[in-house]
Amino acid sequence: MAKIVGVLFLFISGHFANAQEANITISGNAKTTSEFFEELEEASGYSFFYLKDWLGDVKIDQDFQEASLFDILTSVLSGTQLNFYISEKENRVFLLQNSIVYDQLPGNFFGITDTTSTQESVIVNQNLPPPAFYKEATVQTANKLPLVRIGRADRQDLKSSYRLSGKAMNSRTGEAIPDLAIRIKGSNRVAITDEQGNYNIELPAGYNVISTSAMGIRDMEREVVMYNDGSLNLNLEESLEQLDEVVLEADAIRNVQDATTGNEEIVSEEAKNIPLVLGERNILEVAKALPGISSAGEGASGLNVRGGKTDQNLVLLDDAVIYNPTHFFGIFQALNPFTTERVNIYKGAPPVEFGGRLSSVFDIETKNGNTEKISGEGSIGPVTGNLALEFPIKKDTSSLIVGARGAYADWILRSLDEESLSNSQASFFDGIVKYHHKFNENSEIRGTAYYSKDNFSITSDSLYNYSNRLFSVRWNHKLSEKTNGTLLAANSDYRFGIDFDGESNNDFELDYTINESELKYKLRTRLNDKHNLDYGVSAKYYSTNPGSIDPKNSESNITPVDVADEQGLEGALFIGDEFKISDKFSVDVGARYAFYAAMGESTQYQYAEGEPKSESTVTDTLNYKSGEFIKTYGGPEARVSARYLFTPDFSIKASFNNAYQFIHTLSNNTTVSPIDTWKLSDLNIKPQMGYQAALGLYKNFNDNMFEVSLEGYYKLMDDVLDFKTGADLLLNENVETEVLQGEGKAYGVEFLLKKNKGDLNGWLSYTYSRSLYKFDGDSSEERINNGEFFPSNFDKPHDISLIANYRLTRRFSFSMNFVYQTGRPITYPVGTFRFNNADYVVFSDRNKYRIPDYYRLDLGFNIEGNHKRNKLAHSFITIQVYNVLGRNNPYSVFFVTEDGEAKALQSSIFGIPIPSITYNFKF
């Protein structure tokens, strides 16, 4: 049987006539609502029917003189969720929760349309919702919660649907739950929470059942009766079930329904079962298995995204830039896997708040600590140890998470049967601390501090080191029901050094530093059901020491050199709108204005027009004072994405964006090196500019078990940097004389097939892409390959990755990682000639040839600990073999001359199978 939420009375018109005429004088005088109604009963002669629990302890401070009963009740109950009904015939007043009393049923209530009635009715004539009905007993199989009533019915403002908003939070930690899928049962309508856990969804008037789902969060169903617009915060429990699938279902939903293209999300837990070198979880290596993302070679630090250079990626750790997110030449990530929550990767049009890079944004987020009890997670592997501890500072309010990891790889170098490596060393460590404090539901603050350092020496006379340091503070706050704000402050510092101690008197110490500070304020406002605005302002200050070298001791013959510091100021204004045109068609439109100024104190040179830049072509020397603007650059940037839903699980998307980049790396190595320097744009080095368009199809199958996407892109780049052959970049005070700026283009097609559920899960990705560059200057020394387009160092047309995990039981599973890539381009010597009794080598056009193709197979066996509830810690053991086939994949090919003959040699990083066993624990 069904019952009406509000009591249904059928009376003739004119119910309120006597109540309107009665004049009542009564004083509130700080009475409780219950006390006030008792006096009102005596003064009016009406009997009141209600539950005292509905009234609470609210005080009545209003006085009424000669007022009608109707006006008194209307005033007293305004601002509450209580309505009232006056029965004149029986001198009774009924208070009702949320609902209103209807004087007549809808004309089609009994399935028969009344075409003869002419009586006016709010329900019949305006096609508005009938009274709300719900079942007396309901069954909720996920997480049973009581029915909740939202809003207060208003006879003058009845609608067919109402807006429900709120925030989803973890009931254990108190932190927001992003990317939570909220569905209306029996409907295709879905809302996804943002990074602060906020959601908005439109529900039909009356009875609804909403359900939620997200990784690591227990599924929930809740009955909701909608009387008007209102809010409902969702406090959800963590799932107690061990997760062992690679892909999350919520990602598949977002993949189809989001308007933006080229977005990927990797949860740190996904790296758990993927076999990687030496058993290390590496979220950046997992990223390489996604379409459109690669690196120049095995063990190369830096990522190439959609044909872009490594310096064209903005890598953020809790909103602060991390310049080198890898250890040991890219073999390990510089991120603790147990403190890292997720990384969001934007390959297409990124959110409007991000800028300063042409290719991509890697937005890495750290976990919030446990606010209820001390907990931890760690691992012990062949060369590294990791540990993360979580401490509640104030229960349900604030927490601290501390992570540390280090390497003990020196024993491997010492055990190798190679005398030249006997004195080598390689070690690293990193640490992170994050504090999270929740003031209330409308305000929270997060602070992160991070430091990492690498030391390595492959020769006995040189010790190399590089380090990252950063900190950030983020304050999330709610300004109103419609507007949320975020204030960010961050600082990043990257530096490297060389400590040379040779046999001759040329010992030295070399240092390089870049430091940046950023302040950003962004706002998000939900204007209405169709528009969500993101807008704000950001400012960034750069300071670099391009390098200095000093003699290590008094006996050294090294002459000190200290290249003058550089400063720069970068800023942006941005605004974006998520515009829902219809249920099927939505658009994200954004605009940024980027500004950059190179600043003094500095000395800049002007060169003869049309001549190669060199000391001999300098025409003028300009000196700038401290803080004086040397040169300004900037312009508008567009972010446009559109999505059309053919069906709820099939969409087409398109996007366009352009960007400016004011900072560049200086390197003449094939791959990224820890001693690459960053150079700010100035009078002679222009900022890079990029333009990208993308188009894609996205489809889900079998209740989101399978996810398929096909996306194509085309990218143009202006003023990209390259360097003259034999360029001298380190400690060069006139580095612009070694720099070439030209144009680039990249295009490709990306295919991704994911299986998200079942005992077998994983993904297959394939990318066909090209990355080409062109440098055509006024003179021959400023041209490369006669001014024609040539492949970049990381141009690899075919790239295939297959990641799979097969679960035998709840405790045992197999995993596999297979990679195939076209060999990267290389420049070969093609001949020799003799001049003035000396032999010279003739090289081919740049990057005309390729090294052999790369392929690798990794296998793993994963053993979960038993699932007893009462034990000290949960364990997880991974047994993996990296490069099972023993493939001697070339890292590079180089040439030496022996006995007057040029010979090609190949270097490899891992030319044999590398087994490893890693013990993981969690408590």
TrEMBL record:
Family annotation (InterPro entries): Beta-barrel_TonB_sf, CarboxyPept-like_regulatory, Plug_dom, Plug_dom_sf, TonB-dep_rcpt-like
Designated name of the protein: Outer membrane receptor proteins, mostly Fe transport
Family: Belongs to the TonB-dependent receptor family.
UniProt-listed SUPFAM superfamilies: Carboxypeptidase regulatory domain-like, Porins
Domain TonB-dependent receptor plug, residue spans: 279-357
Species assigned in the record: Flagellimonas zhangzhouensis
Keywords: Cell outer membrane, Membrane, Receptor, Signal, Transmembrane, Transmembrane beta strand, Transport
Any GO BP annotation: siderophore transmembrane transport
Localisation: Cell outer membrane
Main subcellular localisation: membrane
Xref: PANTHER family: HEMOGLOBIN AND HEMOGLOBIN-HAPTOGLOBIN-BINDING PROTEIN 1-RELATED (PTHR30069:SF29), TONB-DEPENDENT OUTER MEMBRANE RECEPTOR (PTHR30069)
Origin superkingdom: Bacteria
Topological type in the membrane: Multi-pass membrane protein
GO molecular function: siderophore uptake transmembrane transporter activity
